[in-house]
Each structure stands twice: as structure tokens, then as C-alpha cells.
Structure prediction request, 966 residues.
Amino acid sequence: MSFLIPCPHCGPRSVYEFRFGGEARKRPAPEADAAAWAEYLHVRRNAAGVQTEWWFHRAGCRQWFQAERHTVTNHVRRAFRVEEETGRDAL
Amino acid sequence: MRFEFNGTPVEARPGDTVASALYRAGQRVFSRSFKYHRPRGLLCGAGKCPNCLMQVDGVPNVRVCVTPARDGLVVRHQHAYPSLDFDWLSLAQRFDAFLPVGWYYKTFRSHALWRAAEPFIRRAAGLGVVPADPAGEYEHAFRQADVAVIGGGPSGLEAALAHAGAGSEVVLVDDQPELGGHRRYRKRAGPEPTDLIARVRSHPAISVLAGAYCFGLYEGNLLGVVQPAPHARCRERLLHLRAAHVVVATGVYEAPLLFPNNDLVGVMLSTAAQRLIHLHGLPPGKRAAVIGRGVRAEEVLADLRSAGVETHLLIAPEEVERAEGAASVSALRARGERFPCDVVVVCGHLVPDAGLLSQAGARLDWNAQVGAFCPAGLPPTMSAAGEVTGAGLSAAAPLPAPVAPHKRAFVCVCTDATTQDLCDALGEGFDHMETLKRYTTTTMGPCQGRMCQLNAIAVCARQTGRGMQETGVTTSRPPNPGVTLGALAGPRHHPIRRTPLHHQHADRGAVWLDMGEWKRPRYYRTAASSDETTCVRAEYAAVRQRVGLIDVSTLGKLEVRGRDAGRLLDKVYTHRFSDLAVGRARYATLCDDHGILLDDGTISRLAEDRYFLTTTTGNLDFVEQWLLWWLAGTGQHVHIANVTGGLAAVNLAGPLARDTLRKLTALDLGSQAFSYMACRQAEVAGIPAILLRIGFVGETGWEIHVPAECGPDLWDALLDAGREFGIRPFGVEAQRLLRLEKKHVIIGVDTDALTTPYEAGLNWVVRREKEDFIGRHALSGSPRSPRRESLVGLVVEGEQTPEDGSAVMINGRPAGRVTSARFSPHVGAPIALAWAPEAKAVEGARVEVRIRGRAVTARVTLEAFYDPEGARLRA
Prediction:
């Protein structure tokens, strides 16, 4: 594993500077049923293909962002700041 | 220049490798073979074969033919008992009938037999000896370039100049001490590219790394490059070289031909002979037989003659019958004649050195015309130049050639696999290259297939009737050539973090405890005693009876500010913080959505929009990233600052803590005015401080945070002020005992990766009525709903304190475990925190704890061992 990630703040950097945060997924609403929570907590898509995922630039800007990575080739198509694109539910 | 070989001094000339100096000194045997311990001499002379592996300055398996000779090197042979010239284990070849291909699988079918043979085999097999201590210092370096060119021959030089001319920044890597590639020793193949070298050397956009080898290509065009001895204090430097484009101009290497006794000492490849002649001024022998045909063979013959070697006429590869000789070659038998000689020069197959290209995903296609597998289908970020593409090559001998199975015609010189072995394996059904490789270990030795792969494919193709292309190559994987573990591991660098009060502790006789990177005082030696138990008891007594002071600067410290700060904390922590009054603090636990406890600490509200968080020492990074993650993308107004390094912190605790602190601050410290779980900002000893009235150790106490640079002043002032009250600094060991008596849990010590707050007895920290928080769904059931087990207190009978991790037994069966245990001076018996089944989580229940193999009775207690009502804490 030695690919580059184009950090939206710092530019392309070695993957070793980052912490992986898993696939970007939507957390169920608090009142969602047990099945939805079980799915969220225990089931992973494990996709062989492009996946949107969280990354944290530990040795750089120390910010979380999302990247679209091909899980087979490790090619990172792009990376972006969440607030500028998909957004996230308010706290 | 002089180095030592097996205790004897050897003279070396400038430009010598260790191998060439030894050759000049008359050494002909350089190693013993892996399996049969047959003597082996120089074969490739280019660092591609296993024949010259030696122990150099303690490092095993060094290729001495590419190791520059240096003054004072200590070189030893390896894998020969007692010496290279006489090796008892060479008797093994007399028993080759009992050492067939797949010997291990066929022989050791019972475990007992393997166990009996293993010690001997372990001693006899293997190559060098791994040194007990690192053989020197290693370092890592990182470098980026527009273009990396691997190989400094004419094609590599031209490629470097072309790319540099087009405005790219170029790094050129070559494994030889001088640039020029094969033209340095194949003088008749063309002129030395002196002009190209001069232009490359002087070009401002080209950096040259000579004498450095590239061992692999990794994802994202990352090249692993090793530079031996980059400076006097470094054995090897591993360079992480990343390039937008890689030009592979690695050329070709030469591989042997197959004939009986093709491994005898004195049988060498033509380029090895040419290197000896042109790079080191050494004639390889007195009388040579040259196997080969065509222009290249004529070139070699001419080189030998001009070096004063007597030569026979050229012998074509298919005319060769066998080499003869006992320890080293004495004659070559071909076309029914005997050609006496002391060296057989083999013009072998020229193999494109395309490992880096196939690692990048290139195909290798068989080209019968040039007798080589040539790279095709290169990814766009790679290109190839020169002979590595197959350009200009011609077949040394037709492949696949007829195979005469023979027990001394070696295909794989690394592991002594012969044509007989390969044919036997094929007969046993291992008729695909990848299975043949694994069964015979061909291509799996130190040379990683460079010497044997082409011949093995040819044998396989011939015997199965398939073509070379259909038989195919085995997968090339890095590293090749091998890399030392030292180079991969890099520098022996262990960061140490010291608190701002480090020197205060050192002056007071601290005995250190390593907590991650931090150094913390475990306890303090005194003039009276340096015994741990005595000192810890005295520190404990000071806190319980008078006043004590501990450095807690290692706590993680975060400031969370902004309009939505309370909302973030409500979401992430299990308790509620938006309703925390300014000037109050609250215990805080953090769970994930599985309801598992991740961390704990305190959260104080310093102002409406300003919270001050502490985390456990080891979890700071995690907590900071966890908070940032839940915040990311929400568009909420929160700013998180890690202020750990900026603050020093101490905990002043004990019944006389108030009297001590009162001398240094104008704050009203009364139990009403500054009550338990309150926080204030005020000056202490003239230093601006954050004071938290909390009590991990169970006494009246204040946690005081001040700017790091003021830490020592605060520490000294507190000790001065407390002197009249008998103050004493205490270390982590006393703190652990004090908190254990209070049954205060340490997350990660008393809890594990499955512990919920309910199981840890922390029901009160979970605000299930909150609309949402991380872990709410998992924790929405009743705290009393079925649990795995519960964290309980134990009072152990007898004198012996169980070790942390001891088993809790019920009816003789393990049913839980002790997480923390100490002898409690307050209880007068050993006490512990332990996991026990739910049924035993009852006041007064009896369990057994296994202490050093003996079951000892213990009584369950659900309350704190010390001050269960917390009266002292709140006093």
C-alpha cells in the first residue's frame, strides 16, 4: 500500500500520512428500528470498486474529508471537503 | 587498502570489489551450495546469483561481487563447515539418491521423525548467521521526481537527458559504482558513453544515485532504493523514491546454460569474465574453454586472448557434453573431445531485467527471435529503454532445447535443483510453472529466479510439449535483490515525551515508568529508602493523612469552543453537557455506537461557549479525531484545540490540600464556595490557572492546569507551601493504589473492547433520555438487561496479592479475571477489581482467585473499599 491521496487542503500526499475512517455511510436516525441499526453496525458492503470513504490527514491539516477510492486498484479518483459537497446531518 | 577474510588480510586495489580482491588473492571457492554443499565459485559477477554470498561486518548473505572493498572490512565465509575448501556436509551429494525432489514432503510424514531431524536440518540448512545486535545504523529518506530512470547504461543516460531536456526533474539510479552500464566491461560492443556520462553528470536537473540498487516498484510509482553506506555513520539508507514517470533501462543479465557439472568452480558467465578483465585487470584463468556462438562469443574470446588467457576454439552450446573436475573444473568435454582448462566461460542467455516492469503490470511475451521474454503492455506511467525491451538481442541457444535429465546439471544454483529434479517433478504431475516452482523451490532462492527461471521454463516447456509462451513466467515480486531487515526497519528512533516537570521529578529521585512515549514517575526514592513498597506506602500515607502532589501533565487536554460546542459534546459523550453550569465539571464517558466504552475524562465549562476536556493519557489522539469526525461536514460552529503540550497539570490531594493551596491563592476554597466538581480560573502562586475540584484518588483535591512553562514554578510553590503539612510528591504506583481503593475504573485497564458503561457499573453516566448520542441505540435497554459480566470489587483472603489478569474461579472453573489488584493498607488485605459473572455480582458473594496456581477465596464487594459515601472527597 503506497498510493497517494489528494488531500483537499494539502495536495497529494503518501497514504501513510492519513488515517482511514471507513466507508462513508449514513447513521440511522435514533428512532430507527433494530434492523436498520444492526445493518449499520454490523454489515459492510465490502465493495470491489469505487467507494466513498472517510480519511483523516493525521500528518498534515488534521482534518477529515472524503475520497472516492477504487478498492481494487487503490486509485483515488478525487477527494473533497464534506461540507462543500454531500454535507452531513446537523448534530 | 586491506580487509580481513576468515582472519587473513587481503590486499585490495581501488575499484576492487570484495570478490575481485579475493579472486586476485587466489580465492576460487566463494560459497557452498544450499543442499549438497558443493563448492561454488564466481558465476555472474554482477550481484545476480547466490554464489558469492558472505558474512560482511556481521551482516549475512552479502553479495561480495558488488560490495566495494574497503579498508578494515571483516569478511567471513558462511554455510560451510569447517571451511570453504573442505566442507563435511558436501558428503550430502553422495546420498543424492535419498534426497529426491520434494524430499521434505516425502520423508517427514510423521511428526516424531521431523522433530528428531529438525535440529540437524536447521543447523545444516540456511545461509548466513543473523547477528544478535544490529550491524549498524540505518536510515530512511524520501524523494520525489518527475522522472526516475533505473539503469545508467547508454539507454538510461539518453532517457535521462531527453526527459531533463524536456523540463523534467530526473533521478537516475544505477547499481554500479560508475555509470556506463555494460559498456564498461563489454568494450567491443561499442564505445564507452563518456560524453553522455559527462552531460548527465553536469545537468542541473539530473541527480545521479550511483551504487544504489532499486529492489522493487510499489503502488503509485514508489520505488524502493537502497544506498549502501551513504555516509560514514550509516550502513544503508532506504530511499522512498516516487516518480510521476519511471523509465526502466535495466538492460539484460546473463543466465547459465544447462550441462552436467555446469556449477563447477571455474565455470563462469561471459560477462563475469569480462568484468574481471576490464574492471579489475584480472585474467579469469590460464586456459579457457568458451561456450557460445556468434558475435558475442567472438567478442569474449578476443577479450580473453588479449588478457593473456590461452583459449580453445569456440564450442557451440549444443556440442557440450559435460564439464569435468573434482573441486574445480579441469576440462570441458564436447563433440567427443576433451578440452583441458581451468575456466569455462559460458556465453549464456541474455535475459531482459524486466522485474520492475512486470511488477507494474507489464506482460512478458516470448520472442523466439531474440530468445527472451520481452515486456509488453506497459502502464502509461512506465516506459522501457534499451536492451530490457529485447532490442538488439539474439538467442544464445535455441529454447526450448532437448533435456537430458541429469543429477549434476543444475537449473537452480540457489537450491540445487537439477534437470533430473525438474523432470521428476514434472513426472509427478507438477506440470505448471507455478506448481513446479513451489514443489522444486526453483526460482525461490536468493537469486529470485534470475539464474534459473528461463531454464526452468524451457525444461517445463520441452517436457510438456507446450511452447515457451504457453508455459509462461512465474510472478515477479519485490524485493529483488533482497533487502536487509535493518534497511526496511530504518532508524532506531524511539521518541520520548517528558512532562514540563520532568527535571523536578529527576531531582527528587523519581523511578520512571514508561507510558507510551511518556516518562512518568512510578515512585520517588528517598534518603531513607529506595525500596518500591516502602516508598509507595509512604506516598500513599501522605495523601490519605496529609497532602500529596502528583504530576498529571500527561492527561490529554482539549479546548472545545464555539456556539455549538455543547451540542457536539451532548452528541458524542453519554452524559449531557449543554446544561452544565459555567464553573462546574462533570465526569464524561465516551462510547461508540455499539455502546462500548472508549474513553473517560472530565469536562468543565469555563464559559458559555468554552469547555475544557481531559482525556486519558493514551487516548488523546483518538478522542480528538473522534470529536473532529463527528463534527466534520455538519457545518456547526465548534473549534477544537489540542492544548495538551501547552499545559502542565498537577493534582494536589489530601485532607490538608486546602490548607496548602490557601497559602497560594486568593480564591475561596471553602467546601461550599468551591465545592466538589466545581471549576475556577484563578491565579495560583501568581500563575494563571484552571482549577478543577475533582478526586481520582478519593481525597479533597484540586487538579491545577497552568501554562507549561510555569509548571516547575507551580510545583515548587506547592511543595514549599505544603512543607509545614508534610506534603510529599507521589507517583503513578501510589495513585493506582489510591484510586483502586475508591474503585475508580481505568478505561482500557479495567475495561476491554466489549465493555459497556453498565457492565463497568457506570449507569449514572448514561443519559438515556437524551434525544440522541453515540451509543444511544445500543444502550437504550435497561442497565439491568442481560449482561455478560460485571466489574466488581474483591477482598482477597490471605497475604498474597493476585497479579493483574489472574483468573476468577467458580466451582473450579475460570469464570472471570482480575484487572487490577494491590494490597490495600486501608482494608488490610489485597483488593482487586475483577470481572465476574452476573450471578456473583452480589455484595458478600464468594469466588476464588487463582494466585500462582492456588485457589484463594475472595469476597465480592460492590461499594468502594474506601470512603464509599465520598465524604472525604467532598470535604
Notes: The first strand of chain A starts at residue 4 and ends at 7. Residues 4-84 of chain A form a domain with the Folate-binding fold fold (CATH 3.30.2270.10). The longest helix of chain A spans residues 34-42.
